[in-house]
Design brief:
The chain is α/β, with parallel strands linked by helices and 377 residues long. It contains ten helices and 17 strands. The strands form three sheets. Strands 4-3-2-11-10-8-6-5 form an eight-stranded parallel sheet. Strands 1, 12, 13, 14, 15, 16 and 17 form a seven-stranded mixed sheet that branches.
Length: 377
């Protein structure tokens, strides 16, 4: 199923069942979530899969993955609490945000979470203090070529730093357990994972020669979802990864994955309504009841995801529109160049596909609350 048309035909049915619901809303298809779990499990039969909760922290998503026996990559105590609330054992969680709020490390450890990622000496020392003896994944920076949303500036140690940090971790009484990396979000090049695995295989051997036998290679997230352009099939990426893993790592080493977008994106359709249409100079604008501050942040110009859109008027004459959100902020623009039916008008609905990842999750992103407001007189 690689064409956008197949994809739309399969899912537009399910959006049209919701014609009575007031917009905007995100329809999450549970069967699609389950199918995605099956596909990941079948594609990576030897791997342990951790869903990156930051991509979608809605209870129905968490419950579905809980029942599918998926594990969870968490970014905060807030996310851990949401999972505990759904009856998920801390042993199914890995706290893999490389930089953590200190009190949250302590809360997580006391609750029974035992796996933590780090990518700096200071983080390691925080962990030694607040989660003594915990298992560690060292986050290594890798080439993010091929990804639409690179993560390689903010995160990760180079091989030398990682090696030294892992040796130091033993002195601090911690348990160096594995290596982790992220090839960047929405990566469409299977070789990105292979290159990264080759890099960490060399590092793993170096660390081994210094007396540490790392048990886990966590190859992170980055598995692409279907937006405007075609993407490789999940199984195609998996074949490359499985073959490379077999060649590069001893049998006793576990392969872990942390898909976010790839597990949830295509299970969600954001349904919105047109609330205004206006000519501004050369451009015709359509205004929706949802925008970049209320779910479509990834459409924002600095990120630039192009969400596939369908309407009930598809098939007629098309026109170029600027598509904007409802707020009084001039940056609230979903797209400056989208082809949509010319006849669209007040009240018509837009079905925004691939909206299951990093949309509703932004209301409590990474499980971290907004600052409290304290009144000062
Ligand atoms: C540590 C970690 N794991 C997994 C993910 C999920 O990435 P993706 O949604 O690209 O699969 C992220 C995303 O930021 C991340 O930071």
């Amino acid at each position: 199923m690689n064409s956008l048309e197949d994809y739309f035909n399969k899912f537009s049915n399910f959006a049209s069942q919701l014609s009575e619901e007031e917009t905007p809303f995100i329809a999450i298809c549970i069967e699609k979530l389950q199918e995605n779990c099956r596909r990941f499990r079948n594609a990576y039969p030897r791997a342990k899969i951790f869903f990156a909760v930051k991509a979608n922290n809605h209870p129905v998503v968490i419950q579905t993955f809980r029942d599918e026996k998926i594990n969870f990559d968490v970014a905060s105590w807030g996310e851990i609490q949401m999972l505990l609330h759904e009856g998920i054992e801390p042993t199914r969680m890995a706290f893999n945000a490389p930089t953590k709020i200190p009190r949250e490390i302590k809360e997580a450890f006391l609750a029974g979470v035992d796996i933590f990622a780090f990518d700096s000496i200071m983080e390691l020392e925080k962990l030694a203090m607040l989660a003594p003896g915990c298992r560690l994944l060292a986050r290594v920076v890798v080439d993010n070529t091929g990804s639409f949303y690179p993560l390689d500036q903010k995160f990760g140690m180079d091989e030398r730093e990682a090696c030294q940090a892992l040796l130091y971790s033993k002195k601090l009484g911690l348990n160096p357990y594995g290596l982790t990396f992220h090839v960047g979000s929405q990566n469409t090049d299977p070789e990105a994972w292979v290159r990264a695995m080759e890099k960490v295989a060399v590092l793993r051997s170096e660390v081994y020669s210094q007396g540490i036998d790392l048990q886990v290679i966590d190859i992170g997230g980055g598995y692409p979802a279907r937006y405007g352009k075609s993407i490789p099939e999940l199984e195609e990426i998996a074949d490359r990864i499985n073959n490379a893993a077999g060649d590069l790592f001893p049998d006793h080493v576990e392969l872990w994955l942390e898909p976010g977008r790839g597990l949830v994106s295509d299970a969600g359709i954001l349904v919105a309504s047109i609330i205004n249409r206006a000519q501004r100079g050369e451009n015709e604008w359509l205004y929706l009841d949802v925008g970049v501050f209320h779910g479509l942040i990834e459409a924002w110009e600095s990120i630039g995801f192009e969400f596939p859109i369908r309407t009930d008027k598809d098939g007629g004459a098309q026109k170029r529109f600027v598509l904007a959100g409802p707020t009084c902020d001039s940056g609230d623009v979903i797209s400056r160049n989208v082809q949509l039916p010319d006849s669209l008008t007040l009240g018509d609905r837009l079905y925004i596909f691939s909206a299951g990842a990093y949309t509703n999750a932004m209301a409590f992103y990474n499980g971290i609350s907004f600052p409290r407001v304290i009144r000062v007189d």
